[in-house]
Specification:
- The protein has 203 residues and is an alpha+beta fold.
- The protein has a single domain, classed as Alpha-Beta Complex (Maf protein), CATH 3.90.950.10.
- It contains 5 helices and 8 strands.
- A hairpin with a 4-residue loop joins β7 and β8.
- The radius of gyration is 17 Å and the shape is globular.
- The N and C termini lie close together (6 Å).
């Protein structure tokens, strides 16, 4: 099976751009579901990142013969019992700006010292092949929550997620740096290897 086209179940332009960069060496066209002309309401009612990623991938796969991939990701803050977790995108309401969400989380950590501000980004990526075969992988990046928003390169919770090994937030990392170490980058690399293994076989 040659990987010619991948439909990614998202409407987030920033995310699609990031995915296209990471999967570039697969030689496949990577498009969003909107670009593929697919419009479907998806209820993400899973209790894990993997469940939600598969729900999205299956829903879109019903409308195309291409490989469909979807992700579900979130921020887990240890001091807050791993909140916002799988509710990260819907934390404080889907239409609430991330500036407000970030300020709320930093406010809840006011007075908490560095060593207790540990956190991680988690990303699960699911793929549904035309044959119906399904795969799911997970990637993580460890860090801690900063004291103020920093950086313009990221989106979502990136400006408050500090990565000690770089001395920067993920919003301050270059695209190349971020793609090498990010939760989504790690998960996509794992999925890329799976798809490469299937390029020369009948899936």
């Amino acid at each position: 099976m040659k990987v010619d086209k991948i439909v990614f179940a998202t409407g987030n332009k920033d995310k699609v751009k990031e995915i296209q960069m990471i999967l570039a060496d697969l030689g496949a066209e990577v498009v969003s579901m909107k670009e593929a002309g697919i419009s479907v309401d998806i209820e993400e009612n899973g209790t894990t990142y993997e469940e939600n990623a598969l729900i999205k991938a299956r829903a879109v796969a019903a409308h195309t013969d291409a490989i469909v991939m979807a992700d579900d990701s979130g921020l887990e803050i240890d001091y807050l019992n791993k909140e916002p977790g799988v509710m990260s995108a819907r934390y404080m309401g889907e239409d609430t700006s991330y500036r407000i969400k970030n300020a709320n989380l930093m406010g809840r950590l006011e007075g908490v010292e560095d060593e207790k501000r540990t956190a991680r980004f988690v990303c699960a990526i699911a793929a549904v092949l035309p044959s119906g075969k399904e795969f799911c992988v997970r990637g993580t990046i460890e860090g801690r929550i900063g004291y103020e928003e920093k950086g313009e390169n990221g989106f979502g919770y990136d400006p408050i997620f500090y990565v000690p090994e770089f001395g920067k937030t993920t919003a301050e990392l270059s695209e190349e740096e971020k793609n090498q170490v990010s939760h989504r980058g790690k998960a996509l690399e794992k999925m890329k290897e799976i798809l490469k293994d299937y390029e020369d076989t009948d899936c």
